[in-house]
Amino acid sequence: MAISLTDSAADRIRTYLNKRGEGVGLRLGVTQTGCSGYSYVINYADKIDDADIVFEDKGVTVIVDPVALRLIDGTEVDFVKNGLNEAFSFRNPNISGECGCGESFNV
Question: What are the CA-CA distances from residue 43 to residues 26, 69, 103 (Å)?
């Protein structure tokens, strides 16, 4: 079981946490929504709960709740810049389909 980060994602997370001046890492999860079933939820975490599963990659702490991990285990998180747009993107080996806009997925 693992969540991994590209160099770009790790750099972005470290930069933002340093700019915030607080936080323990990145919290990654899912929510039921969209036309395909689930979408990713990504936030900066200020604490780690007892039930959380914690990964370390490239010097960054990634925090995931156990329910979400069943859907996103093996996912690689990237941070992509395209012109003026920038966003985290996800390569999830568990998905069986995505909606046309790329905002939601199903497993």
Answer: 6, 15, 16
